[in-house]
Design a protein that fits this description.
5 strands; about 20% strand; about 120 residues; alpha/beta; Rossmann fold
């Protein structure tokens, strides 16, 4: 059974590294993509076979079919995106740190634990 996978962001690392790597895993189904730039999102959706396209990570987080999500977004947005996805019950892959400040280093880990009890 394939993991229904979503991805947030179609920047250089997303298109050039992460999306192709996830798409190459036989057990991964490219279920949904979230991208703020509509034309770019449509292009990446067609190229990699994502079934659904959303205009924001919040919309993707509401999709009950998506089980896991990769994130390539601006450094300043990463923690909030991770928080929203974890609160929606998604597994999250991120290449960048979860938080901007050292004292908040484990914030997204705490969000996930707190939401699950």
């Amino acid at each position: 059974m394939a993991v229904k996978f979503g991805y947030v962001g179609c920047g250089l690392m997303g298109q050039g590294v992460h999306i192709p790597n996830f798409a190459g895993i036989p057990e991964v189904e490219m279920a949904a993509l979230a991208e703020l730039r509509p034309r770019l999102g449509e292009k990446v959706q067609r190229r990699w076979g994502f079934r659904k396209l959303y205009g924001s990570h919040v919309e993707l987080a509401k999709d009950p079919e998506v089980e896991a999500v990769g994130v390539s977004a601006a450094f300043t947005e990463q923690a909030e995106i991770a928080r929203d996805l974890l609160r929606a019950g998604k597994h999250v892959f991120m290449e960048k740190p979860r938080c901007r400040w050292r004292r908040r280093r484990t914030c997204s880990t705490r969000w996930g634990r707190r939401e699950r009890g």
